[in-house]
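Standup, Tuesday
Yesterday: got the pipeline producing structure tokens again.
Today: sanity-check two examples.
Blockers: none.

Example 1:
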Amino acid sequence: MTVSKIYPDAQAALAGVLRDGMTIMAGGFGLCGIPQVLIEAIRESGVRDLTCISNNAGVDDAGLGLLLQTRQIRKMISSYVGENATFAKQYLAGELEIEFNPQGTLAERIRAGGAGIPAFYTRTGVGTAIAEGKDEREFDGQRYIMERGLLADLAIIHAWRGDPEGNLVYRMTARNFNPIMATAAKMVVAQVEELVQPGALDGDHIVTPGIFVKRLVHVPNVVKRIEQRTTRKHAEELV
């Protein structure tokens, strides 16, 4: 018997899940692979005092930048935030708490949380402000600092293809942080571009098994913005 996890829209998929003060992981890298439709539904819900775990906070008018505009985020746990003026303004004004992480450390903290590993040691950040207040130990003549694994109440992710059972396939670089976040939250809600019948996905291509995904929403016409558009000059411009 197949159990469908499909919901009619993003609002329905998040119904009964959202609450003030919760921790949310949001997949994506820049604007690539972000769960834009689910983010918009969170904005419309009005929940506040959120802690968001994401590589970055999108841009001012897309991605998590939408939740910064409405001041629904209290704290960001991130790596790179240089494309968001609203983020910088709120941080400098003391209105937003930030926990910066080296990018690889952030990815491993999420992966570790999903794997049931409460903490690990890394050389990244030793001797810098990142190491302040953290346990430091020596292994094989090298100094390491301890980082804690990360877990969330909710993970919102984006996938290319999915089936009603929640099995997911990602497309190229849009894969980024989405698969590891799917393992590190109590509730996982995914938006998928293409919805296929059970059994249609090649088992060898499934990255996130349906056991991790609780709810799905089909977004066949999701808008994909380009964060930084760079084009090659025409030959006549090079003369």
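Example 2:
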Amino acid sequence: MAKSELWHKGDAVRRGLIGDTGLEGMKTVYDDPIMDAFSDYAREAVFAQLWARPGLDTKTRTLICIVSDTAIHAWPELAIHLRMARRAGWTEQELSEALLHLSGYIGLPAVREAMITAKTVFKQMRDEPEGGLG
């Protein structure tokens, strides 16, 4: 089936946010036909229509995702959004401080898990060519 114009727009936005290395790491999630509809929807509705909206910059949008992922304990998504946030210009220190700040509002257990996820993502990115930011 041919991909829509929105799909192609969303694919470009997604690639820009996550980067080739990040997308490569996600292949095992999307390597099954049952994920095709989800992947198509995410590209069209989330990346083409939500992430590309005017009104907020990409850097702010990534921080919103990190806060929401941590609050709802969405650890796999947090790893993806931390990568996006680093690529959008947040430093490891700024993201760590944002997570620590959340401890007063959503609790230490969630922030602990978020910090463990961040530690892993940041190390992976530092070990990649160009620090995972290229």
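Quick observation on example 2: The chain has two domains: 1-53, 56-134. The domain at 56-134 is CATH 1.20.1290.10 (AhpD-like).
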